[in-house]
Each structure stands twice: as C-alpha cells, then as structure tokens.
Amino acid sequence: MNRWAPPLPAKSARTHDAPLDITRLLTTITTNLVGMIYRCRVDACWTMEYVSDCCLRLTGYRPDEIVFNNRISYEQITLPDDRERVGRAIDAALKQNETFEVEYRIQRADGRVLWVLERGVGIRDETGRLVWIEGYIQDISQRMAANEMLHEAVRRYSSLFEHATEGIFQTTPEGRYLNANPALARIYGHASPDDLITYLQDIPRQLYVLPERRAEFVRLLQEQGVVHNFESQVYRRDGSIIWISENARVVKDTDGSVQFFEGTVVDVTERRLHDEKLEYQASHDSLTGLPNRSLLRDCIEQAIAKARRDGHLVAVVFVDLDHFKLINDSLGHHVGDRLLLEVSDRLIACVRGHDSVARQGGDEFVIVLTEQNDENEIIAVVSRLLEAISQPWIDNGQEYGLSCSVGVSCYPRDGDDPDGLLRSADAAMYKAKASGRSTYHFYTPELNQAISERLELENSLRHALEREEFRVYYQPRVDVSSGRIIGAEALIRWDCPGKGIIPPDSFISIAEETGLIIPIGQWILHEACRQNSLWQRAGLPPINVSVNLSPIQFRHAGLVQSVAAALAQAGLDPTHLELELTESFVMHDAERINVAMQSLKALGVDIAVDDFGTGYSSLSYLKRFPVDRLKVDKSFVRDIDSDPDDAAIVRAIITLGHALGLKVVAEGVETHAHLEFLRQHGCDELQGYYFSRPVPAVEMETLLRNARATPSGTTG
Ligand code: C2E
Ligand code: CA
Ligand code: CA
Asked: Which ligand 1 atom is nearest residue 669's CA?
C-alpha cells in the first residue's frame, strides 16, 4: 500500500477512445497536489532539478530558489538532526532498488519546522547508473501532532493506571481478571498485577468473604450498568480480611452484549473500623463498657420479641445505688467511677449469658432477664443481686458499705414496650427506696399513684418559696452543767396547703435533686439569722442558732457570700451562728472541703459535725478541720442505757471530741436516763424531745423568756 508507484511512462498512458493529454494531466496534478513532486540528483546536497509548484506552499521557497540550489539546497532545508538518518534510509533503499519512505523535519523559509513524509525511487540511466531520485514530499505535521497527542494521552493514562492509589480492574462477569493495576495488587496483598491475575481465578469465592456479595455486585451492574461505593469484605492474599469500596461500570460491545466490568477499589478498612468504633461508643457507656440507654431499648425490644414467640417472661430490673451521690460528691469522681465499675462487675456476675446488664446513667443500672418462667425465678436473681451489691467494697484500703434499691417490672404483665417497662421498673425502684433502701419492689399499678404524688410534690415545692410556705422551727440546745438553753437548731418545715406540715425528710432530697436546695437553704439562713437577731434585740439571753447545710449548698460557689450576707442583713454577730455539716460528707474530699470550711470559719461562725458516728470518720481530718462541735447521732443515744455497744460508742465520741478540744452535743435525748448517762460521761450539750420538740419561733421565744425567768434550767 505504501509502495510508491513510479511515474507512468508517457507512452503507455493512452486509452482507446480519447487521446489523453498527459502533459495537461501531470500539470494539473503537480500544481494542485498538496505535496511537492521533485527530481533531484544523487549528490551531497540533493540538488533539485525540478520541483512542482507546491514547493512554495510546503517550504516557503519558490521553486526557482531551490532548483539547482539557486538560493538554498534541499539538504539545507532538512533539519540537521534528521539529515543523517534520512540519507541512510534513502541510500539503503536505493541500493536495494526499492522505493523509500522516510519521515523527517524541514525548516521552512519562515523558520517554522514541519514534519514531512518523502516517498521516492531511484532512476537509473541505460547503463544502470543511478542518476536521479524522483519522488513526492508531503506535509504530515497534522498527523504527527495528532500522533503526538495520542502518545501523550496513552502515556498519561497508563501512568494514571500504573501509579493510581486506587486499585483499577477489568474483570469478566464470570469473575476472572482481565487487567489489574499495581495498586490493586497492593491492596489485595499480591506481589504484582500478574500474580493477582493468575492467582484469582474465581473472584466470588477466592476474594469475597461472602460470595453473595459478589453476586449482588454483578446483579446491580447488570441491572443499572453502574455501582457506586459498594462496600464488601474481601480476603487479602495472606488470608487477612479488609473492607473495600468499589465503583464500577459495565463495558458493552457495539451489539450491546457485556464485554467486561471495569472499576476502582479503595481500602476502607480504617474508616469502617472507625465507624464501628463510633457506633460502639454511641451505644455503650464509656466508663463501664456496658450497653447504654439506647442499646438497652434494643435489648428489651429483642427480649420482648423472643418472649412473644416462646411464651416466657421478661423482667426489667432497675438497680439504683443508695447514697451514690453522696459518695461521688464527697469522695470525688475517681472513687465514684471505681465504685461504678465494681458494681457493674458484680451485676454481670449475677446474671446468665443471655441476660443483659446496661447502664442507664449515673448510678442507675438496668438488667434485662430473659427466659423467666415465673416471679420466683426473678426474685431469686434479684435477691442474689442485692446480696452481691451489699458486700463491703474496699478501695485504697478504705472499706465502704454499699447497697442498692431495686425495682422490677415484667413483660407482659406491666407493659409491652421498652419505655413502658422501664417506667414501671423505675416507679417500683422509687418505692423500694422509700421503703428503706437495700430492698426490691415489684411494680404494681398503685405505684403510678405514688409516682404522680411525688411529681406533684416536686411541682408544689417549686412554688413553695414564693408562696412563703416554709417555716422555721427551733429546737433548743441545753448546756448540761447549767441546764440553760445556750443554742437552738433551726429545722425547716413546709406548710403545704391541703397537706399540713410536711417534715424535711419528705422533701429535702427532692430539693437537692432539683437544685431547689440552694434558694431554700439561703432562705433559711436569712430567716434564722433574722430571728436570732430579733430575739437578742428583744433582750432575751443571746443564743447560738445552728443551721443545717446540704452538701449541695457546700459545693455551690456562692455559699460564703450567702452566709456573710445573711449575717450582715440581720446585723447578727457571727459567733451566734453555727453551721451543721453531716459527718459522712465532711470526712471525704478533705482538701476541698477544708478550704471551704476555712473561709466559712474566717467569717467567725461556728461549725458542727452532724450525725457523728454514722460516717466514715478519720481522726486526722477532724484534727485539721476548723470544727467546734460534734453532734452525736441520735441513733446511738436512743439505746444508750440498754445497749452496751451504743454506750461504748457514745463514751468514745465524748472522749475523742474532748481530746480534740471540741464540744460534744448529744441529739435525740428523750429520757431522764439518757440525760443522766450523758451528764455522767461529760457530754457538754444536749438536744432532744426530753427538753423540747422543735417548735415555731413564738414558742421558742417563750422557752427563752422562761429560761431567763428560771435560770435553774428547763428540764421537765
Ligand atoms: P438532723 O439535722 O439530724 O436534725 C435532727 C432531727 O432529729 C430533727 O428532725 C429533729 O426533729 C429530730 N429530733 C430532735 N430531737 C429528737 C428526739 O428526741 N427524738 C427523735 N427521734 N428525733 C428528734 P427533723 O426536723 O424532721 O429534720 C430531719 C432532718 O432534715 C435533719 O436531721 C436535717 O438533716 C434535715 N433538715 C432539717 N432542716 C433542714 C434545713 O433547713 N436544711 C437542710 N439541708 N436540712 C435540714
Ligand atoms: Ca442537724
Ligand atoms: Ca443530726
């Protein structure tokens, strides 16, 4: 095809019908062809003897400038870099008596470089001597440029293919590789693309962990032509499993039949692991690793679904630690966290594999017991659980007594969805707490009544302050030796319309949980100071009024200012105010509490440790704290005359208090026998029904007046 046909011999170019003007034909061709026809000598500079008119268009030189090298030789036009190669190619062809075909560059008159294709043939004289070359030179710059672009594109795409970080593949629908790039080999753990292609002969089974996944991939491709972000688990060469994401499309023949699939693969293992971790974190409690509130709902739902099928009971067991808040607030979060971990371990140890233990939040755990046959089985588990939790806990050498309150609800009796069952179990748990803690309670419909009462109470409590429903009662404190009233404890009462006087035990914990204790505590401080100041101004014997502080108030930043403001507003000397803190609270988180106590003490008020003997005391703390009084808890005083243990404890507290230079007050003094015992053992001050119940301010005033009238004492 690329054979150059030598010019037609003029004589043979005739037809039978019409005479052919061969000269005219050749002129037409030579003037109109885009290429240049030439004849040149076989000499060093290819001296042109003839060039067609196209010479000007091709080279920018007129034919007469080139012919006989008039202005420039064709050799000179040929780009120096190409001359030798062109010469060699032509020589070789001429020697063989063949036509030649060579591509090279010329420099046009205007300086532009052009690619040309030259085809030619040697012409010999009668003796066989080579005299001329005749041929045709044609501009192929456009084709060369297109070729160059094509090459560049191929280079670029193959570089993309070779160096891509994404794996790239072509596979047959049946599951064999046609093509794979190095990245794919790397992702799948093969040494090279060839290794991968030879090794993986059955993609569905050798590569995919679940062959169904490959089937799904093929199905989607066949139905939609493309798949996007298709994620699967695959085996690497070493057997390890990774997650990949594929994007692929179908490549079809012109007749529409599937030729192959091609697409890309990225390793998304890390992201999947991260997602799984996030999902785990979203459904598990970070401290204990137990399922959290949201996963708990799923657990209950599944348990219900299963119970529906097999007719068993499901028990939702709500476990709430007793006094956890106190431990957490006073001992610090680290101890609180360790305690929660311990409880979580103990709970897990009480249940079987198919039951679940979840953390509902704070100190609340929920256990879902499945496959229960009757209530007795549930009771057995719950009793085991109470027993396990009540084992003493030793942390950093300190021993703590633990207990929890448990509420139980059952599917199907008490509800048929997670929220309902949880609500019922929660209500039952409240009942257990109310009936003395460290116990369990099953849900009963009446409990709803109790719950709504509590809610109602909480609501009314929110308005009690503005509606001025709180009262302060005072209970005198008597000096043992003189029998005189030297102080009084301010005790709050709630005069709730329709309910009468409500004692503090029924609402202080609600006030603490809701934060209402802060404004209520402030109010009683102001009220007690105001009242005491009034009494003094009325000329009654000056006494010291003590006010109880909740741990919540103690943690609140504004406490010291609040006390100072109460004193200032009432115009009361600080020595006539005492603040009471319960022992269990005082004895822990010592550093922080000490700082707060010191700043209170700096105001000039007294500080008493309340309910002494019930907490976990540490002598060293007591010594360091700026404490003025110990108040022996009334539970020890009650049986002081009959229970030798209690008697011993009270004697020890009195001795201890005195050794530390503190005054000792006994609470709950109800009988003359109590009084005698305490007097004998050197107790300093007494408080209790034996002298007076807590009474409203007016009655307290009467007691104070009488005391002034009868300085011998108030006993009787
Ligand atoms: P507490 O600080 O230990 O107060 C002494 C409690 O013992 C008072 O109960 C008092 O009425 C009672 N009591 C006094 N003498 C006797 C007796 O001879 N025998 C018996 N069995 N009990 C006696 P009350 O007033 O019901 O207060 C209960 C608790 O409520 C107080 O215990 C205190 O912890 C708390 N509380 C009272 N008022 C306030 C307050 O204003 N703020 C705070 N945060 N807590 C308060
Ligand atoms: Ca008290
Ligand atoms: Ca007390």
From this structure: 18
As a whole number of angstroms, the distance between CA 75 and CA 57 comes to 18
In whole angstroms, what is the distance from residue 565 CA to residue 313 CA?
59
Q: Give the CATH number of domain 20-141; options: 1.20.140.10, 3.30.450.20, 3.40.50.2000, 3.40.50.150.
A: 3.30.450.20
Residue 398, beta-bridge partner list? 395
Q: Which helix (H) or strand (E) holds 470?
A: strand 470-479
**Does the beta carbon of 315 lie inside 6 Å of ligand 1?**
no
Residue-level pLDDT at 21: 86
| Amino acid letter for position 708 | R
Q: If you measure from the C-alpha of residue 491 to the centroid of ligand 1, how many angstroms do you get, rounded to a whole number?
A: 6
Q: Domain 164-267: give its CATH code.
A: 3.30.450.20
Site of tokens 């009959």: 642
CB 686 within 8 A of CB 488: no
Ligand 3 centroid vs 511 CA: distance in angstroms?
A: 18
pLDDT tens digit string along 499-529? 899 999 989 988 987 889 999 999 999 999 9
The response to whether residue 689 sits with its C-beta less than 6 Å from ligand 1 reads: yes
Q: Give yes or no for residue 670 CB within 6 A of ligand 1.
A: yes
- The pLDDT of 174-203, averaged and rounded, is 95
pTM: 0.54
CATH of domain 289-447: 3.30.70.270
Distance 475 CA to ligand 1 centre (A): 9
**Could you say which of 3.20.20.450, 3.40.50.1970, 3.10.580.10, 2.60.120.10 is the CATH number of the domain covering 456-706?**
3.20.20.450
DSSP per position, 375-430: HHHHHHHHHHHHHHHTS-EEETTEEE---EEEEEEEETTT-SSHHHHHHHHHHHHH
Quick: pLDDT tens for 574-621: 999 999 998 766 655 667 778 888 999 999 999 999 988 876 566 667
Q: Which atom of ligand 1 is nearest to the CA of 667?
A: 15
- What's the pLDDT at 586? 63
